[in-house]
């Protein structure tokens, strides 16, 4: 969709397709079975709008949600979400009352955290998941210390240990030996603990590549332990990398997010005229320039300067000069070209979306990953939610 869509007071807007979210969720739940889906909705559901997306996912039957910080979980509770929510990050001392009050599961990532949880639970009950560091070296209890940490938690009956989990560092690189090593370490720990808990390991990369712990339906019962698959970016229709996007499952995902910007100004420049900060691009012919009302403050990365293209008037055209905070400029071609004559102020251009360029393209131009492009979308960008033929503009709710 590249036509004009109302988004009051803004020259840039994002479209989020709820039908795509539903389709992706059903596909991922089918792929994850017999494990259940824990939908990761941190960072405002990867900029898709957590309070709009989570109810859709809850209706689809996801088993749990995951967020990075307690404030994100509180936002979901205040939006009416009743499904279990796991806070993935390590809690600060002041976080425990918030988690207890809003029924958020706490991640225990060290003996110190376990002791704080045990002590606070004498005031209010807490439910926790124990995080094990099997090779990511970012957060978690070392495998050899898990038993001691678990015993510390068990000293207070008002602490409920709901699960044990780890996070793969290289699951988006098929066949990487570290994934197998992490899986083996975690599986050995699971057998050693021999407890009736939820054990979960797999993230989006593991789910899409099959390199995680998910069993085949024909596998022995001893392999069927993953109770959850924690899936984030795939819910929104993307693979962790462009290389994985053509896989059997990833190729069926439907990207839900598009970023559009309106033409706010049109002018013609002569050959030899430079454009934008730093004069990094100079026209080699008379050129019709369209200024779009979107820039890096909206989440369109400045690092894409010199490489990026946008879709305007059904053509892919280069972004020229340096991408600015609030604007970027597009070469429409010679002033007498069909496109240059057709484009008008107010027309919309696609910066990224299912109709192209894709988020993978923008990530490549900016030398980053799809996650950063999604999560970088600014809050000042109005979100327009579509679902079939219906649409709802967040700015006009």
UniProtKB/TrEMBL annotation:
Task: State any GO CC term.
Answer: cytosol
Keywords, A to Z, come to: Isomerase, Pyridoxal phosphate
Residues of the active site? 42 (proton acceptor), 277 (proton acceptor)
Entry EC no(s): 5.1.1.1
Q: Which Pfam families match?
A: Ala_racemase_C, Ala_racemase_N
A Gene Ontology biological process annotation? Answer: D-alanine biosynthetic process
Superkingdom of the source?
Bacteria
Sites where N6-(pyridoxal phosphate)lysine occurs are at 42
GO MF entry, a single one = pyridoxal phosphate binding
Q: In which pathway does it act?
A: Amino-acid biosynthesis; D-alanine biosynthesis; D-alanine from L-alanine: step 1/1
What residues does the Alanine racemase C-terminal domain cover? 256-386
Catalyzed chemical reaction(s): L-alanine = D-alanine
In its keyword annotation, does this UniProt entry include Isomerase?
yes
Q: What are the required cofactors?
A: pyridoxal 5'-phosphate
List the InterPro entries.
Answer: Ala_racemase, Ala_racemase/Decarboxylase_C, Ala_racemase_C, Ala_racemase_N, PLP-binding_barrel
List ligand-binding residues for substrate: 138, 325
Member of which family?
Belongs to the alanine racemase family.
PANTHER family for the chain = ALANINE RACEMASE (PTHR30511), ALANINE RACEMASE, CATABOLIC-RELATED (PTHR30511:SF0)
The UniProt function text for this chain reads: Catalyzes the interconversion of L-alanine and D-alanine. May also act on other amino acids.
What is the designated name of this protein?
Alanine racemase
Which organism was this protein described from? Longibacter salinarum
Higher taxonomy: Bacteria, Pseudomonadati, Rhodothermota, Rhodothermia, Rhodothermales
